[in-house]
Write a structure and sequence with these properties.
heterodimer, A: mainly alpha, B: alpha/beta, 2 domains, 6-stranded mixed beta sheet, 4-stranded antiparallel beta sheet, 7 helices, 10 strands, 26% strand, globular
Chain lengths: 235, 258
């Protein structure tokens, strides 16, 4: 980390005046200034709002959909084409469609976040539910478990590791969706700051915002890894 | 049905299954009966449908022909009169020992206090007191199967169905657990049907050993074990034990070679 920062500083000083790479110290100063600026924080709030609402929707829809797809083969077959489509096709071209459908408000950005993140959660959850060990299902049935008990006490807990892994992957994609929506078309939040600084060649501030976006990504990934460890302590 | 009446009646039972489009017959025209309190082992060449038979007794699958009656009633599915000990333990990895042993009582809808009290007693019975809060991954194979045994005993079933219960364990652990099952069964007699591929285990524990033929499995012979009860470890070194094992082997070797 220190080596990286020093190399950056050295490269940035050599490139002084070329606008390509600001030294690390200049970015640090710009970042410090941003952190005491109210406009930065309101941009941050706008950005995180789409992420939080979008991710909440991903969780609320993705986990039940995944469990249904994994536990009920017919549901799995019905959902599969859409999931494969969402996983295989880059979601960016869909953003303009959401703007047409939802306008340029929060809804379109939330939709982008959801479309980026949801498929991977559904697919992981479904795979985990489907792969519930047969011996555990036999065991529960042998002791007289009803279909509901089988689902709640065996399939659901057996799916938790897959759900946790799916949440981690989905959260990373949701962050990408958040950035893409703001950069491509709906110029608000941190995306608007990036566009503005980029257009005015204010590279120190541009880098400072990019660092913030990366920090959000790392923070989300870290908290998901933590959650995963909490949920799957028995494995 | 008196004290020594028939508990399990298997009549002309057949079961087929399909592999890659081929219809195979796992069991064909199998009949036998088990008396109350009897310990019966089922042994046979691999693929003779032993486990299929046990799954039918448990009510997990149905016969395609013939009928199985337990306690006078045709088996229509799993029931509280039977409990299964599985070869691969089949413990819930996210539950503690206590949670696993209490699981069947939870399925039956017993209140938490009662099921935990009964689970603790069953855990103590199999020598695992002190491990109630451990998770399966923290236990050895032998300890995991003790949990499996406690989980079956906690429902106080009339019939215990054991599917190669010691098959996944190393030789020493297998020996120890056989001794403990023998002691438990002698202290708390139950009807037991055990599937095994271990002749010594079958002879050591059972009143009768049923030898099945290779696929399709049917009854080749039944051997009444001429060893007195109660038995203990010293039985293993007796001449009568060696003779009984030899007797089972003499039948089995022709079936395996066939």
């Amino acid at each position: 980390m220190a080596v990286l920062l020093l190399t950056w500083e050295w490269a940035g000083r050599r490139a002084a005046g070329t606008l390509t790479l600001p030294p690390a110290s200049a970015v640090a100063v710009a970042l410090a200034a941003q952190l005491v600026d109210g406009r930065f924080w309101s941009a941050m709030a706008v950005t995180l709002q789409a992420l939080v609402v979008g991710f909440a929707l991903i969780v609320a829809v993705g986990i039940p959909a995944g469990l249904a797809a994994g536990h009920v083969p017919a549901v799995g077959r019905a959902l599969n084409p859409y999931l494969q489509f969402l996983l295989a096709v880059p979601a960016s071209p869909l953003v303009p469609l959401f703007v047409i459908a939802f306008g340029i408000g929060l809804a379109a950005r939330v939709a982008t976040v959801v479309v980026f993140g949801i498929a991977v959660l559904v697919v992981n959850t479904a795979a985990a539910a489907r792969q519930t060990p047969t011996r555990l299902i036999d065991m529960a049935r042998a002791f007289g478990a009803s279909r509901r008990q089988l689902f709640v006490r065996v399939v659901l807990p057996a799916s938790v590791p897959g759900i946790a892994a799916g949440l981690r992957l989905a959260s990373a994609r949701a962050v990408v969706g958040m950035v893409v929506s703001e950069l491509i078309i709906i110029s608000v939040g941190l995306g608007r700051l990036i566009s503005t600084y980029s257009a005015t060649f204010d590279v120190a501030n541009l880098y400072a915002i990019v660092v913030v976006v990366l920090a959000i990504g790392v923070g989300v990934a870290r908290s998901m890894t933590w959650l995963e460890r909490r949920l799957v302590r028995w494995a | 049905m008196g004290m020594n009446g028939t508990v399990i009646e298997v009549s002309e039972v057949s079961r087929h299954f399909r592999i890659a489009g081929h219809e195979l017959t796992a069991l064909f025209g199998l009949s036998f009966a088990v008396r109350r309190g009897e310990f019966v082992s089922i042994i046979g060449p691999s693929g003779c449908g032993k486990t299929t038979l046990l799954r039918m007794l448990a009510g997990l699958i149905e016969p395609h022909g013939g009928q199985i009656r337990v306690g006078g009633r045709p088996v229509r599915g799993p029931g509280r009169d039977r409990a299964v000990v599985f070869q691969d333990f089949a413990l819930l990895p996210w539950e503690t020992v206590l949670g696993n042993v209490a699981f069947p009582l939870e399925i039956q809808g017993l209140p938490r206090g009662e099921r935990e009290e009964r689970a603790r007693r069953a855990i103590a019975l199999v020598g695992l007191a002190g491990f109630e809060a451990s998770y399966p991954y923290q236990l050895s194979g032998g300890m995991q199967q003790r949990v499996g045994l406690a989980r079956a005993l906690v429902v106080d079933p009339e019939t215990l169905l054991m599917d190669e219960p010691f098959g996944a364990l190393d030789a020493q652990t297998r020996h120890l657990l056989q001794d403990e099952v023998l002691a438990l069964w002698q202290a708390h007699p139950k009807t037991v049907v055990m599937v095994t591929h271990d002749m010594e285990e079958a002879v050591y524990l059972s009143d009768r050993v049923l030898i099945l033929t290779a696929r399709p499995g049917r009854l080749a012979r039944e051997v009444a074990v001429p060893l007195p009860r109660p038995r203990d470890e010293s039985v293993r070194r007796s001449a009568a034990f060696a003779e009984a094992v030899e007797d089972v082997w003499s039948s089995l070797r022709t079936l395996v070679a066939a």
